[in-house]
Design brief:
90 residues; alpha+beta; 2 helices
Length: 90
């Protein structure tokens, strides 16, 4: 991923599967302006959230066609493809 600046980030990102990413949906406000609504996954570790936020901040302005706002947390559970080290312990 081009947004990765360090070897640590590249290694970290290589382990992430799509199933570890927030859910996004396109929505419109009352003025018919479109935006993405991000539904964060509550089971992700703080380390994963921080890394995703850092990388997202670098690419979001260039790749997303609409602004992003935070919505309600996602109730999606982690899949078996998600590395256990990125899942909070209950």
């Amino acid at each position: 991923m081009a947004a990765c600046r360090t070897e640590e980030e590249k290694k970290f990102w290589a382990e992430i599967e799509n199933e570890c990413m927030s859910d996004l949906e396109v929505d419109e406000d009352e003025n018919h302006d479109k935006h993405y609504v991000r539904h964060r996954l509550v089971w992700r570790t703080d380390e994963l959230v921080e890394m995703i936020d850092r990388l997202d901040s670098r690419i979001q302005r260039h790749q997303l066609s609409y602004p992003t706002i935070d919505g309600a947390p996602s109730d999606r559970r982690p899949s078996s493809k998600c590395p256990r080290k990125f899942i909070k312990e209950a």
